[in-house]
Each structure stands twice: as C-alpha cells, then as structure tokens.
Amino acid sequence: MKKTRFLKVLVPAVAVVAMAAPQGIAHAEHDPRHCTDPEACVEFGATLLVAYDPPTPTISVEQRLVFNNDSGIPHTVTSRLDDGASFDVTVWSGKGVVVEAGELEPGTYPFYCTLVPWMYGVLTVE
Predict the structure, then answer these.
(1) What does the DSSP 8-state code read for residue 52?
(2) Model confidence over 32-44: pLDDT tens digits?
(3) N-terminal to C-terminal alpha carbon distance within the chain
(4) Which residue in 14, 60, 77, 123 has its CB near the most CB atoms, within 10 A?
(5) In the chain, where are the structural domains located?
(6) 48-70: per-residue pLDDT in tens?
(7) Is the CATH code 2.60.40.420 the one for domain 22-125?
C-alpha cells in the first residue's frame, strides 16, 4: 500500500519537474534523429539505462553534436562548468537537438542532466 502511494506522488512530481526544465539557449531544437554525414556531425544520446551513450563524445569545431533522446523520459544536456551558460538544452523523449560546436572553444566541457543529476559526461571539442 505504501509503495502505491509513493508512486502516486512520485510520477506527478517527475512530470512537473520535466515541464519546468530549462529550454535551449542559442540552440534550435528540432528532430534530426540521425547524422547523414558522419564527417559533419557526431551522434550521442540517452539510453533506457538512464545514461549518456557515449558519455564522452568528441567533436571538431566544424562538426555538429546531435543528441537523440530515446530513453522514454525528458533529459537535459547542461554544461557543468558554467551552470548551463555554454549549453543547456532540454530534449523530450523521441526528439533530438543539434548543438553547433562552432559556438564552443576547443576544450573539455563536463555536462549533466538537471532532471537526472547522476547522468553526466564530458564533451571534448578539438
């Protein structure tokens, strides 16, 4: 009985948090789904295991970073270095977003999901 009550409270709370998630900063959200030119973009995503895959994408400044969310729940890709100032996008389940690397200087950018804070990774821009 207590487990059912817990789920009745948890599920609406997760939905409210997801709806209040930050929207993308300077990134156009659309549904790219897949890179058609591997020299122009690098794909990564969220898995059903609630993890980024791969957790350490590497791109050049000429490439786009494509994040596809097939996990079943919304996620963010938020820069940890500057609390989302470099990049902060919300990606609904079944959607994708493109991050233009030209907006970022070469270096490493730790990132995480603000909705699932134990999801984290490191983006390397060369």
Answers:
(1) E
(2) 556 677 677 788 8
(3) 53
(4) 77
(5) 22-125
(6) 778 999 999 999 888 888 888 88
(7) yes
Specify the pTM: 0.69
Backbone angles phi, psi at 28, to 5 degrees: -80, 125
Around Cβ 51, how many Cβ atoms within 10 Å? Answer: 17
Token look-up 């929207």 returns 23
Q: What are phi and psi of 69, to 5 degrees?
A: -105, 105
Please name the residues in contact with 88: beta carbons below 8 A apart, sequence gap of 6 or more. Answer: 22, 24, 25, 76, 77, 78, 79
- Burial of 100 from C-beta contacts in 10 A (0-12 / 13-18 / 19+): middle
DSSP string, 58-116: EE-TTSEEEEEE-SSS-EEEEETTTTTSS-EEEE-TT-EEEEEGGGS-SEEEEEE-SSS
CA–CA distances in Å: residue 83 to residues 47, 102, 109: 23, 20, 11
- Dig out the tokens for 97 from the structure: 């977003």
